[in-house]
Amino acid sequence: MTSFDSRGNSTSKWLGDAIRRIEADYLRSADTHLIPLQLPAFAAAGIDLYLKDESTHPTGSLKHRLARSLFLYALCNGWIGEGTTIVEASSGSTAVSEAYFARLLGLPFIAVMPRSTSPEKVAQIAFHGGSCHFVEQAGQVYEAARALAEHSGGHYMDQFTYAERATDWRGNNNIAESMFQQMARERHPVPKWIVVGAGTGGTSATIGRYVRFRCHDTRVCVVDPEGSVFAAYHASGDAALTAPGSRIEGIGRPRVEPSFVRTLVDRMIEVPNLDSIAAMRALSALLGRKVGPSTGTNFIGMLRIAHEMRQAGEQGSILSLLCDAGERYLPSYHDAAWVAQAFGDVGEAQRRVDAALAA
């Protein structure tokens, strides 16, 4: 039976049009590139490193995939209708992508985020028609988002709960399926390791499920920035653990998020903040373009695993993600004075990363 909203419009008609718009947006988008890294010392040992460049999505980051999935999941569950205000708790990139899809459907959007979020991300949210509500600490975003959604009669998207279930992990053009398709003609087509960070945990869950479903001999490593709770939770299984919170924007959390599935992660690597920043700089120089700090965290994990494989005489490929472009972080992580004030001297970390690349 067809239902109607308060204006007398068919809700099934609006829903069908909303899903069509999102699917049409997907069909207009090409897949993201898989970039081989030119690292001769590892290549000579039979170890190849790749980055999947998620910065080329319409909203400039890996979170574009998540936002699309979250909107489709909420629409098909009947949680979003015509005129629904969308509210999200985010450190920035997810909010940018959700603002894009909210505008696509003509829906109001409010992002709840820490005041420390980069001004570039705030400006992008505004560009897509969204507004921002700031809190002082990352751990305050959840309750603030719930309260705003309740006050506005809207829907709290809650990426931290629904990220791992909104994506079809068996395939259907998810990021894992795309990785393996793009690797098909490489020297080592089935990667030994896939290295990702975790904000919600949805990406590691999707990849972990996919490699098991396809029976691939691939292991999943999550790199966890300093101050995040995920590594401790992975080791202990205690979901009540908390931590101060990450200072690497976009990854790491102060609490254990429902979408982080520890049984799908084969290994955790904890990464100091200064190492993430040093690796971000080194990788930017290697690629000839700036990358963001979470991509630096990924690169540290890749280099560590590559060194271990070479020492063990193993060959194979290692994949990770270029999460977003560094232009979002020009006044912060890519500004030497800002880094010195916020994190301290990066010199020793830079020497460690340079040595890892040269060895």
What does this 3D model show about the protein?
The chain is α/β, with parallel strands linked by helices and 359 residues long. The chain folds into two domains: 27-56 and 172-358, Rossmann fold (3-Layer(aba) Sandwich); 63-163, Rossmann fold, CATH 3.40.50. The protein is 44% helix and 14% strand. It has helices spanning 11-27, 40-43, 63-76, 93-105, 119-127, 141-152, 159-166, 175-182, 202-213, 230-236, 273-287, 293-311, 336-342, 347-358, and strands spanning 34-36, 47-53, 86-89, 109-114, 131-135, 155-156, 193-197, 219-225, 267-271, 316-322. Helix 4 (93-105) links the parallel strand 3 (86-89) and strand 4. It is globular and about 60 Å long.
**In angstroms, what is the radius of gyration?**
20 Å
Q: Report how far apart the termini are.
A: 67 Å
Order of helices and strands: HEHEHEHEHEHEHHEHEHEHHEHH
Q: How many domains?
A: 2
